[in-house]
Every structure is written in C-alpha cells, then in structure tokens.
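Re: the multi-chain job from yesterday

Posting the exact lines I submitted so nobody has to dig through the queue logs.
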Amino acid sequence: MGMRAKKLLRFFAPILGAFLIVGLLGGVLRPWQKDFSHTIGILTAKGGVPVHPGQFEEGKELFGKYTVFLTATATPPVGGDIKIEMVGPAPISYTVYSRYPPGVPLLNRLHHWYRFEDDTLKGVTPGDDIAIVVKIDPPTALGKYELTFTNVKTKQVYLTMPVVFARPGEEVEEERPSDS
Amino acid sequence: MRIVNKLKNMDRRQKVRYGLMVLGILALAPPIGFLAQAFGGSEFCGPLCPRMAIGFDFPRELASRTTGVGLLFTWLGVTFFFGRWICSHFCPAGGLTEFASKVLPRRAKVDYCRIVDAPLFRYGFLFAFILLPVFGIASICCAYCNIRTIPETFGAIFLPEARAMLTTGISIASVIMYVLLLGIFSRDGRGHCHLLCPIGALDTIANYIGAKLPFTRRTRIVPEKCPGCGLCVKECPTWAISIVEQGQGKKVAKIDYHRCNQCRICEAKCPKDAITYGLGSVAKG
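And the result, structure tokens for all chains:
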C-alpha cells in the first residue's frame, strides 16, 4: 500500500468508525430493544394530542416489565390535580413514577413544582412539563391500552395516550394525532 | 488519610477544577440540579438539553425550546473566547465519570485517545449524528445520550424514577457504553467526551477557531521558555501536546486545540512555567 493510500485510510478510518457506531446504535441496537417506548403528548382541554403513541411486542419485556417514558406539556387552561390511569381490554398491573418534582425541590419561587402522590399530579399549572415513567407488567390480553390523564375534580380528560401490545409482526391500526 | 494528603498536595488549578466539577454536578445532575430547576427541569435532560438543538431540527428548537438553544450558544461562546471551561470544569456528564474513574488504577483503564484519532472520530460522530437520521438510517437522539445517561445513573442512587428508567434495555446498553467502557474504564474518565459527544465535537471546533485569534484566552505554550523536555506530553490525557522542531535544532511543545480539553494538568507539570493560560497575543501555542 502506498503512502498516499495509507494517509487516506488513516484519515477516513476513524470517521467511518464513528458512522458505523452511530449506525449500529440507532439502526441495529435501538430497534432490537423493544421493552421501552418514549411517548410524547400534549395535554389540552379538548382531550389532548398523542403526538407519539407507544407500541410493544409480546414477549419483549425486560426483567418482567415494559417501560413507557411519557413526556408532555400542559397547555392552558389545563391544571389542577390530574390522575394518571392505564385502562384497556383487560386489567393491567403498572406503577407510575414522576420525574417532577425533582428529588430535592429547590427554587420553588422561581419555578412552581407540582406534587406527585398516589398516581396523581397535584397542583399542575398551565405550561408545566410532565415526565413520567410507567413500568408495566405483561398484559393478560393483547390489544390497545390507554394511558389517561383526568382532572380529579371535573373528570375532564386531558390526554389519552394509546399504548399498544401486539404480537410480533402484527399490523396495528396507526394512531393519527388529533386534538379532539 | 491518603486521599486527604493527595488533596493537600494537589495543584491549585486542579483543586479549583474539582470544586467546579462538584458545583456542576449539584447544578445539573439529580437529585439537586439547582440550575436545571431554575429553568423548570430537574437535570441536564429536559428543558435545558443543549443537544436537541443540534441538527436539522434547529429552527423548530429555536422557536420552542429557547433555554436549551441558549445554553448551547452560551457554552460555545465561552469556549470560543475563554477555552473549554464548561466541558472540562462544569459538565456533570464528564465530571461524574472522571470522579468515578479515580477509584481505578491507571493500568485498568484504556487510553482511547492514544488508540483512536479522537478528533476525527468525534467529528465523524457529529456528522453521523446529524446526517444519518435525515436518510432514515439511524437516529440516536435521546436514546443513547451521554448527557442523559450519566447524570441519570448517578441519580438512580437516590431516586426511584431514575432507577425505573435504568432498568430498560436502552439504558443498560448506554450505561455499559458511556459509564463503564468510555467512562470509568477510560484513562481520564472522559472517553465519551472525546469520542461520542456531539456537544464536545462542536465545542472543539469553537475551541480550535477561537485559539487562532489574539484576543481569546487559552492554555498556551510560551516558546521562549519551553525547554522541549516533553514532560507535558506524557501528562496530557488527551494527547493534545507534541514536541516539534522550531528551527535551529530547538524543540518546543505545541498544543493541538482539536484535542485540548483545557484540564490544565500540563500547566502544573511544566518545570519552566512555559505553559500558561492567557491571551493569544501574549503567548502563542
């Protein structure tokens, strides 16, 4: 191999290596890990917008759990105490964790923190960010489950986030974002 | 006792750096994250995320998440004028793995910057990070993020919600890669900073361009003072210093600003005080 070819190889090998790592992580490893789903939504007074619903394949749970990470924003006038529930074709066992308030809530005068107790976000104000982790046991019946955010007082639903459990390769009805 | 003695004998610059690293962890990592809380988040990941603004989503990010975009530009601005202070002194992702790596002996760690051409790999990663999602080949945003994974792993010691996130396939893969292989088991505990951090890649570009200007501050070599002994070359964890011929047989050290992480370890090691933090017009590197 000539000097020029060696120089070119030395230059391009690390760049190609980096491309390969990104390709392997995002293109191969990520689609293979199906125990986790990041869902995104918007809480509105009209029932919410599920921007990115969740979907799982049967038998792909890890340590006996599926994990949904849901991030959402409460748009005005959404506020108050909001109950988080998961409902579907069969009873399902799940645990909800909230990232907010932080472990040691400081600076409450700069930023108001809501509280999280008994699967309920208490004292949410318009504009608040919501970030929850839901650990779900494998359901007894497959199908479309829903993660709902409901105002405890008025029973108004602020968001219904579909979380689908299907057999591998099974066609699932695609959810279209809507604000109704 | 050994740790206390080690701290007593430590160079003042490193004491300041470790102090700022602790402050960075308190400011941007769970369970406290006081700076993140001021912006409505609980840690680096969230409203303050500077990483999501990198790529073709930039206009949308600029319109919707100004705090993250603001942090990114502040970060790059500080680097352009003063060097890589935020990466080396304040970033909790780098700080946490650097502190954790101190428990391991040097022989147990891999010197990635020696094996791989770190700047080329880092820039390749940045291009792939931006380009591959456009072609639908691979998107790694958030899922495999060092800025998310490392503080969250630390937070898992204190918080059940962080532990819940950590027990997913995606987080386990990220912890193995960023916290262990490219973190604790890398020479300076910052292998992920040198190879797989898109902020770090942009930061080194700002560092390299800024270093060429006379009014910016950097760790620089004063050629008149440099004996060319090569002590600094051995100490630099990023292999950023090399000895070059300056003419008439005189050898001097030279800093590669694509590699330099502004850790300032070399400044303390120079017996002739030939390495100093200052303006480009005073001391040229």
